[in-house]
Amino acid sequence: MKRKILSVLLLVTMTTALFSATPMNTASAASTDFVLDGNNIKAGNINGLTFKGFGVLSGNSSSALLMDYKSEHPEKYTELLQILFGGKNPIMTHVKIEMGNDRNNSTGPDPSTMRWENETANVKRHPGFQLAADAKKVNPNLKVSILRWNAPGWANSNDKIYTWYKNTILAAYRQYGYMIDYVNPGVNEQTPNLTWTKQYAQRIKTDSTGFNNAEERALYNNIKVVISDEVSVGSFGDDMVSDSTLRDAVSVAAYHYNTDDNSLGSFKQLAESFDKEVWNSEAQATFSNSSFRPNNNMKDPTVAGTGIGGTNGPLEMGNTVIKGFVNSRRTHFIYQPVIGSFYEGGQYSFKELVSARDPWSGWIHYDAGLVILRHFSWFSKAGWENESNTAGVWRAVPQASFTGATGTNPVNGRNGTPSYMTLASPDKHDFSTIFINDSEYSKTYTFKTINMAYSGNPSLEVWETRAADKGASFNSNYMKYTGTVSTNSSGVYTVNVKPYSIVTVTTLSNSGKAEFNTPLPVEGDRPVLDTDKTGSMQDTRDNILYADNFDYSSKTAPVIAEGGQITGTQSYIDSRGGSKSAIPRYASDRNGAFEVYLPDGSSNYILRQQVNQSSMGLGGTWNNGNPITGIGDNRWMNYKASVDVSFEHNSTEGGNNYAAIGARQQGGENSHYLNGTPYILKFWFDGGWSLLVNGSSVANGNVASGSGGVKISGFNTAYNAWHNISIMVADNKVTAYLDNTILYTYTDTTQRLSGRIDLASGYYNTCFDNLKVETIDGYAPYYSEMLDNLEMYDLSSVSATKLVYGGSWAHENGKSMYNYQRSLSTSQGIGATIQYSFTGTGLDILGANNGSAKLEVTVDGRVVNSSVGTMVSGNLHQNFTLHGLEYGKHTVCLKVLSGTMVVDAVGVVANIAGASEIPVEQSAYSRIEAESYSNQSGIQTETCSEGGEDVGFVENGDYTVYNNVDFGDGVGGFQARVASATSGGNIEIRLDSSTGTLIGTCPVAGTGDWQTYTDAKCTVSGVTGKHDVYLVFKGDSGYLFNLNWFTFSEKTVIGNLGDINSDGQVDAIDLQVLKKYLLQLGEIGDTKLADLDANGEINAIDFSLLKQFLLGTIISFPGEAL
């Protein structure tokens, strides 16, 4: 990310020579003519043609980890809120919440707000309701809607559905202060019951009981009805056109994905003639990481590479908006999901606009798809018009919109036909036209405007987004102001649109606005989940990868106030559902409901699977399967996971009432079942156990009876007794334990070497406590880095090379949801190579392979294996491994000798746990480069104007770590080379952890620019010997400062600096003594008194400083600050 605001010198008027670069392919670069007639801007149409922007869908467990971001990294969460919902022209204007019954409805379940009929509705345990509440603090005009995937078992009639909905709606209002705006009374992606729709609408309008006051009732009675959320063209269009009572009942006609109308054009008629809202209530976003998409070499049809376009890309998403409006008058588009806050590998992975999967580090990826949507929302006024039609919401103009893209979902624009959409203010004073070219051909558009409210033909600002030019930062061409375009003598505008780009032309003056010249945040490193024994703090020094005792009673969560600002804290447990039903940390359910629970009469919180089929029954589901939740990092490799378990139901129910722990879960098509996890230990309270591999038992027994070969004397078979189950994975060996007794060790011939843990049970109340994941001495605990196959460069402002491919490869987007970031690289013949330089002990290739490839392996320039085979593997698992290198920097090159190799991801193997990795000592009194950190949180590195790199993108709470710094006998000062374009902040200097002993605080002031450096200094004390130094950065919101290097100075000298002869005065005699010393004609008793700039050296600079002091041009020495 660049920090400098783009210069206003860019505001240069351009003529029709705009975009004059030679097109990649001119075969279809034909001109397209259209007219924007102000008489076609329908100001009187306040629902059907008003452009409402875009919406966030929270459902299917897609927001499972989002509240962890809020609590663990609130600054990242609030930044997310501002990016999506903030500003004058927010991208997202609506949060749609899917309700469920704790059973899977694709990626995972939605927590039921009422698990039994007499339960008080609880919306706090559903992340969607809390997200909507926080989003409304940023944008009070935000709309909120609900519908259901499935109902809880007790809600088996329309009357009970109404009760469930009403109680939930009122709970949200009473808890968070907002009333739901829209309700679909039907079931997601099902044909609507039109009779029930009318009945529900009538009940909503006339309900008069159960309200706290008249205002609450009035707001409730004003809720509007949506139908039908079907998965293709709505089946009800003709009914709404012909049935006035249905039109009176229903405010919004909505269906999913398909961009087209029915054969009679009913939805166009509803929008234009009956002024009804028509939504694409679940639309396709981006199916990739657009940052690396330009590395594909797909030909579609003839030119290799599709930039940010191509199959399932952000330009395709944009064309879906255009075609949805042109063909069926959709004016609102909701994406499922916008925020992917669940673990990779789940069903429908990598189809989001924001990836937020690592709440322990705050890592977030903002996709270029958001920039594409900004080309619409930032150049219009989107939203809902008020009843008096005075809000000024812009109208979409059918007569000035068109697309020739084929298909309905996905929409394919690679044919090079025109695709554009025009939005205009209802007063006809302003307009914007969005052009999308998702093809390899250049396009030229000519158009004119007539009957507008302005005089003459104003010049139009031109904004473009496309892939970076070669060698430039990946986002250097995102939302780029390229100048203005004016009409010719005939009043005609000409706009050329480059291949695989989006262009917006507008009468609005946006080029001078800071937000238009500020790119989206760029994700930095992704630290692996490796915490201390509490699970709350990152700590790589112990043997704990993660731990959780589920007692969050001392934790707090932030309070989000008006404007999206953090104004205080609240109870962590209460904010996430309460003591009987709280969202646990870092858990992503795929079936069932795992929540933090405080048993009656106890002070010990536990994790409890809440769905009890005996008392609740079970509602419907999308993917069947028993309760299962994932916790942790998919980069974990070798570890021992353990948890205490107990039961509340005194029957094994024929084997269906069990507790289980799993290892190396990566996801995949069976991830909602136990057999989707490679290794599972199941346990029954009667002493029964079974070790499952891919869902099949490889060993089983009963420790009470001794069957299976293992007996534990005195084993307690009471259903409510606590026992410890654990599973250890070390390379290809899997060992199951019960109460620390080994049950069985299995050696797997298939490589499944990485993945997170699972906890699982039957549909009965089952209790878990004291989860612990530990490293294993002698084995690497995780991949220190995992790269997508298309990650050929990093995302720094000056991009650095990452993966290097040689020979012939097919680099493809648009692959399976179970391919990492939906991309693959496949070798195309003998001699294809892949190379990577890294620090670690090995390198693995992950992804589905047929095992046909033979490879030559070169390490650090030496062939270490002239021919080695690869392995048959499934999605997300290893097909080639290279382990056992000495820890350090290496370059590995793999060359295909025969067969075919598929690369989905590349894993760098970390150092061996327990290995004697003695960090290199560094003197505290040497200059320590800021980017040479051993670990970090939140920051990124970038090119420094003083040479090398600096640590940048520093925000409040970020930190860097420098291991094994030797302070000797004591330290007196700290000096840092810093720059800041803001008001700066503070550097806290701490020992051995980010909350360790504070030895000094160094204030950093603004310098006027991110690359204008100065020295910041402060005194430090209270430290000797060797320590890990943590620089913890503190300040207000936003970026604080850059750090180039730092150093320490020894203990403060005794005596006055400059009093070199120690006679109590600083005078000409001291200057003579210093001169003789420098000429090697004399000695100085205490050299510290002569080191006037405290840099550890005595040189001509000190002589000059002393001379200036004696002449009165300076009144103190730089070293005095230290």
UniProtKB/TrEMBL annotation:
GO terms under cellular component: lysosome; membrane
Signal sequence segment: 1-29
Catalytic activity: Endohydrolysis of (1->4)-beta-D-glucosidic linkages in cellulose, lichenin and cereal beta-D-glucans
Keyword flag Membrane: no
Keyword Hydrolase set for record: yes
Occurrences of domain Dockerin (ranges): 1053-1119
Coiled coil location: none
Keyword annotations: Carbohydrate metabolism, Cellulose degradation, Glycosidase, Hydrolase, Lipid degradation, Lipid metabolism, Polysaccharide degradation, Signal, Sphingolipid metabolism
Domain CBM6: start-end pairs: 926-1049
EC number: 3.2.1.4, 3.2.1.46
Molecular function as annotated in GO: carbohydrate binding; cellulase activity; galactosylceramidase activity
UniProt-listed GO biological process terms: cellulose catabolic process; galactosylceramide catabolic process
Region (Disordered): 516-537
Residue spans of biased composition, Basic and acidic residues class: 523-533
SUPFAM superfamilies with a match to the protein in the record: (Trans)glycosidases, Galactose-binding domain-like, Type I dockerin domain
Family matches, as PANTHER family: GALACTOCEREBROSIDASE (PTHR15172:SF1)
Family named by the database record: Belongs to the glycosyl hydrolase 59 family.
Protein name: Galactosylceramidase
Lineage: Bacteria, Bacillati, Bacillota, Clostridia, Eubacteriales
